[in-house]
Specification:
The chain has 402 residues and is α/β, with parallel strands linked by helices. The protein folds into 2 domains: 232 residues, Response regulator (Rossmann fold), CATH 3.40.50; 126 residues, 3-Layer(aba) Sandwich (Rossmann fold). The chain is 38% helix and 20% strand. It has 14 helices and 14 strands. Strands 7, 8, 9, 10, 11, 12, 13 and 14 form an 8-stranded mixed sheet that branches. Strands 2-3-1-4-5-6 form a 6-stranded mixed sheet, sandwiched between helices. It binds P-hydroxybenzoic acid (PHB).
Length: 402
């Protein structure tokens, strides 16, 4: 069916007068010359990310990465220029529905890009499920989003929390560690990364002897570090990120634990913080879907372009934002800018092969990246790649029925 018929308009009548043309522009119909009017209307992109608080740097890196992907395409996706709408979600789950509605209801964005914090993502999922808006999640790992809450309009370009720690079980086993303590923030991301690790470690015959939690986003680690010293596990595994990770690494060293009980983690523990922590992170091994020193053409080009544009070194968050732009571009190109053709757009995004700085990846059925998990080691200011800890790791997507 032609777009005009779908809208219930007669084509000639539709093209009479400027009001109709404006309507046609918004609806993305074709002029007789074949030029899509949709190309003239800007694509409304809503960025819902933390720009204050412990995850502020992460939000900035994601934003930078996304904008770099757009700029590399001449500032357009599917032939349409971009209009940005930005909300600082403060990593506050309580404000998530209201903040999401600012973009979805008030600004009427075509696509939402967000967020970092798993608890905030859960609030977004509720609102976006109802509105049907396209959602690309460039970080928050909440397992539910590509699990029981999965939906055709939900996409993720980062990871599930489970994915980031699952390979660590094998890593610890190879080092001969039989017992471990997990320490993290008490919220979905920490709990799910702990569960992913536990599953992987127990499969290898290891034992998680203690789970230690601090409330998010607190950074008072002293009492728990004292407890770790008295438990004396073979290894400690941690999830902290951003400013909290930097503080934890420094406190671990100051408590005299560094060099005594080896510390591991999902790579967020050491990504984007090495400038801030001096030698407190030296030698720490982590698993993550990105690393320094990958030495691929794509990664080198990305790092050069990012450093040039923002006078900063990119990290995993920048990569995830960049890939959110790449995934959206794949969809927009397929429908030539007509984001209203949601079915075709979703189909193209599902089939996309993303040429990422992290290495190529595709989406699983539940719209989560299937990707290599690297083993990295901190050497100076780099999370140097040591090898692949798990090839093409897919989230199990437990409970996804879509
Ligand atoms: C999350 O809340 O899902 C989260 C936050 C920061 C990270 C990773 C995961 O670095």
């Amino acid at each position: 069916m032609h777009e005009n018929e779908k809208l219930g308009y007669d084509r000639r009548e539709f093209l009479r007068g400027s009001t109709a043309i404006a309507g046609a522009t918004a609806a993305g119909v074709l002029l007789p010359t074949g030029i899509s009017l949709a190309q003239q209307a800007k694509l409304k992109v809503g960025l819902m990310l933390p720009y204050t608080g412990t995850y502020a740097q992460l939000g900035v890196a994601i934003t930078n990465g996304f904008k770099l992907a757009v700029e590399e395409r001449g500032g357009k996706l599917g032939g349409r220029e971009i209009e940005y709408f930005t909300v600082d979600d403060e990593s506050n789950p309580a404000k998530a529905p209201e903040n999401t509605n600012k973009l979805v209801q008030r600004d009427k964005v075509d696509v939402v890009i967000g967020t970092v914090h798993s608890g905030v993502a859960m609030g977004m999922a509720k609102v976006i499920r109802e509105s049907g808006t396209l959602w690309i999640n460039p970080n928050a790992g909440a397992d539910e989003v590509t699990g029981p809450l999965c939906a055709p309009n939900f996409f993720r370009t980062s990871f599930s929390n489970w994915q980031t720690t699952h390979a660590l079980g094998k890593v610890l086993k190879a080092k001969g560690h039989k017992t471990a303590v997990f320490i993290t923030w008490k919220y979905a991301a920490g709990e799910q990364m702990m569960a992913g690790f536990k599953e992987g470690f127990e499969k290898e015959g290891g034992k998680l002897t203690k789970e230690l939690y601090v409330p998010f986003p607190q950074v008072e680690f002293q009492a728990l570090l004292t407890e770790i010293a008295s438990i004396k596990p073979d290894a400690v595994v941690a999830f902290f990120a951003g400013g909290g990770a930097a503080k934890f690494l420094k406190d671990y060293q100051a408590a005299g634990l560094k060099g005594k009980i080896p510390l591991y983690g999902s790579g967020f523990l050491t990504d984007g913080v090495l400038e801030a922590v001096g030698d407190a992170a030296e030698g720490i091994e982590t698993t993550l879907h990105y690393a320094d020193g990958l030495d691929t053409k794509k990664d080198k080009a990305f790092r050069l372009a990012y450093a040039k544009a923002f006078k900063l070194q990119p990290d995993v968050y920048a990569v995830q934002g960049y890939d959110a732009g790449q995934l959206l571009a794949a969809g927009m190109d397929a429908v030539k800018g007509n984001i209203g053709d949601k079915a075709a757009m979703i189909k193209a995004m599902e089939a996309a092969k993303i040429d990422s700085p992290r290495g190529p990846w595709t989406l699983s059925k539940s719209h989560n990246p299937v990707q290599d998990m690297y083993l990295r080691k901190v050497v100076g200011k780099e999370n140097k790649v040591q090898g692949v800890a798990w090839k093409a790791l897919a989230d199990p997507a437990r409970g996804c029925k879509a």
